[in-house]
Amino acid sequence: MRSRVTAAVTMVVTAALVMTGFAPAATAPDPRPAPAGTPPLTVTLVTGDRVTAARTAHGVQVLGVDPGPGRDHVMFTRARLGDHEHVYPADALPLVEAARLDRRLFDVTGLVEQGYDDASRADLPLIIQHARQARTLPYGTQLTATFGRLGMSAVSVRKRDTGGVWRQLTGGPYALYRGDNVAAVWLDGQVRATLDESVRQIGADRAHVAGVTGAGVPVAVLDTGYDPGHPDLAEAVVGSKDFTTDGTVADGHGHGTHVASIVAGRGTASGGQYTGVAPGAKLLVGKVLTRQGTGRESWVLAGMEWAVTAGARIVNMSLGGPPT
């Protein structure tokens, strides 16, 4: 899940260390006060350290760091990458640079924007990449999903337990630098619907005239679900499953129905005028985004596994999120 720009970003972060290192709040001067009228907020990192920040007209501003229990000796680095503020504990930075640890876990701005600050939720969702055939998890993590084909697990860690989990990830059998049980840890970040316009003028009508309609080809659409009552999809969908917290594959957003219709809509409601790109395809609809149009990466992974197991030859995901 590491992007191609990670190496360049790492160089920027490393360069920033020279000027932005600061001591723990316990030994440093009092954090800067939050701007007038802006209540401070806190963000607990995967290391158990708690960052104090505030929303300003220029984005999220880091005010200080309260080290986790037994971590008063740890130094911290503050780096600004674009308009995002990052805080890296000294014992985490080498693991970030080695691609063992997701840098988004220390992107304070990103965590706040995704609703992972302490006021918004009491746990931190993670995705763990297992090493080899290992499937055990550090104590203090709650399993939420497994992805056997990918060798991954989605877990939730109560923020009050992050310090204990971090100690296991930096020492003992689960240590990331050893890679015996846990190979890497990522944030289970938010994803969102991104496609809001139909594909234009791709020549699909000429393909239909030539008899190319995708007849019988299983195509999975992982999105916000679909409208089971839509006449264009009534005969197209042959399987569906919900991976969200909505509890239904019904589309309360509209994006998934739109995308599914683009892919394989039969054109029934419009007398054939708005036929999809492959009107003969068989649709497998996996709901990985809620009625708000957002979801978790672990839901997307679960949908991908389901789609492959169900026989999909093509998987469409018109969604996106921050670089991983």
TrEMBL record:
GO terms for biological process: proteolysis. Transmembrane segments: none annotated. Residues 1-25 form the signal peptide. GO terms for molecular function: serine-type endopeptidase activity. It comes from the Bacteria. Residues 214-320 form the Peptidase S8/S53 domain. Pfam families: Peptidase_S8. The keyword RNA-binding does not apply. InterPro entries: Peptidase_S8/S53_dom (IPR000209), Peptidase_S8/S53_dom_sf (IPR036852), Peptidase_S8/S53_subtilisin (IPR051048), Peptidase_S8_His-AS (IPR022398), Peptidase_S8_subtilisin-rel (IPR015500). Keywords: Hydrolase, Protease, Serine protease, Signal. The keyword Ribonucleoprotein does not apply. Gene3D superfamilies: Peptidase S8/S53 domain. Belongs to the peptidase S8 family. This is Peptidase S8/S53 domain-containing protein. It comes from Carbonactinospora thermoautotrophica.
